[in-house]
Design a protein that fits this description.
389 residues; mainly alpha; 13 helices; 5% strand; elongated
Length: 389
């Protein structure tokens, strides 16, 4: 099973859902701990021991996400190496170890981020570590409840589990991990291809085309590229001359020049283009159009429409999962409400989330009904939360 863009989608989505599950589970776990303050006036005096329990749970959940992701990564990488030479296999397995270590380090980033957020929420709710918090009057209980509800359901709480890039842009942790995995695996495809190219004598590649590709890639898609390493592939002088004649006659640029530099054609994380090997004989005897047809490189408007609708389905699935997690959060806050406090605002927000969930159900039903090639997968709509951690 070769490592290609389709497999990258599978692995990256799996990694994204692993970390979505981890973040949701951490939030539910820490929320439950914080909400105990509303029920037990003496809970704060036990905070030191409770913080350690929460810290251990966050660490366990973060590490589980990394281990699950690394297991999936190892499976796909090893599957892709079944029919390659020993040198390529050895180098790829060395890179696999590096990727897995990087995932473990990133899981520690999630752990640190989540634990710091938990400590900050304690302060924002108005609790003093190590001291008994006297709930006192119903009015004080109401204020504490409202503040806790506000803190635990705010946009700031969601952003606490994000990663900020050097340019200031923020990504959710699961999106960051997905993007990181896509980048890593795209680089792995390139390394495997270039390594096996020498053994297989692959010099030329044609790229596939997409009607809606990004503007910076539009002029490159559908063209033929050559491998800069052709001189080290053991060809005789006559064959090298044929290669160089083909390069000159079709005014080619090397694949390395466009994938290692801007606009990072085929190598940027969300680029769907691929370099497809083609033999010298076909390059010389066929037109670009014929090469595309021979290698099934053209993606039509119809296939592009299918892709867009499948992405729309994934969007609704993410929205449904997110709403289900929100509903669980609000239910938990209602269950932990001190006796006598007004919960009308929380109930209203819970009902609003339920209405939004039903709207998303309606949208995805209509989408699948109107496009016979789509299939409803209810497992992708389940809230990603680990139970009994």
């Amino acid at each position: 099973m070769p490592l290609d863009k389709k497999n990258i989608d599978k692995i990256s989505n799996e990694v994204s859902q692993n970390y979505e599950e981890a973040v949701n589970t951490i939030q539910m776990t820490t929320n439950k701990q914080l909400l105990k303050y509303l029920k037990d006036p003496n809970y704060a005096s036990k905070q030191s021991a409770n913080l350690k329990k929460v810290r251990d749970k966050i660490f366990k959940i973060s590490l589980m996400a990394a281990n699950k992701s690394n297991k999936a990564l190892e499976y796909y990488i090893k599957e892709s190496l079944k029919n390659v030479d020993q040198e390529t296999r050895t180098k790829s397995l060395e890179r696999l170890k590096t990727m897995q270590n990087q995932n473990r380090m990133l899981s520690l980033t999630l752990f640190n981020t989540a634990y710091q957020a938990h400590q900050r929420f304690i302060s924002e709710i108005g609790l003093k570590p190590g001291q008994t918090y006297e709930l006192g009057s119903l009015e004080k209980s109401q204020l504490l409840y409202e503040q806790a509800s506000k803190v635990l359901t705010s946009k700031t709480a969601e952003e606490s589990y994000s990663v900020t890039y050097k340019n200031g842009r923020e990504y959710s942790f699961k999106s960051y991990m997905e993007m990181n995995m896509r980048t890593t695996l795209t680089n792995e495809i390139r390394e495997q291809q270039l390594s096996t190219a020498i053994a297989n004598g692959e010099v030329f590649y044609i790229s596939n085309t997409f009607p809606d590709c990004r503007p910076s890639h539009a002029d490159l898609q559908g063209k033929i590229f050559y491998n800069e390493d052709y001189l080290s592939m053991g060809f005789d002088e006559e064959y090298i001359q044929k290669i160089e004649d083909a390069i000159a006659s079709k005014n080619m640029v090397s694949r390395q020049s466009v994938e290692n530099n801007e606009p990072y054609f085929c190598s940027s994380p969300n680029c769907r283009h691929e370099f497809i090997p083609v033999p010298l004989e076909d390059v010389v005897s066929m037109s670009n159009k014929e090469l595309h047809e021979e290698n099934n490189c053209n993606y039509t408007r119809a296939s592009e429409e299918k892709y867009k609708n499948s992405q729309k389905q994934r969007y609704y699935e993410r929205q449904i999962r997110a709403q289900k997690v929100e509903i669980e959060k609000y239910k938990e806050i209602l269950e932990k409400a001190p006796k006598g406090v007004d919960t009308a605002q929380i109930k209203a927000k819970l009902n609003d989330r339920k209405e939004t969930l039903q709207e998303n159900y309606k949208e995805i039903r209509e989408l699948v009904k109107n496009n016979s090639y789509l299939e409803r997968d209810y497992t992708r709509e389940n809230a990603k939360i680990l139970r009994n951690v």
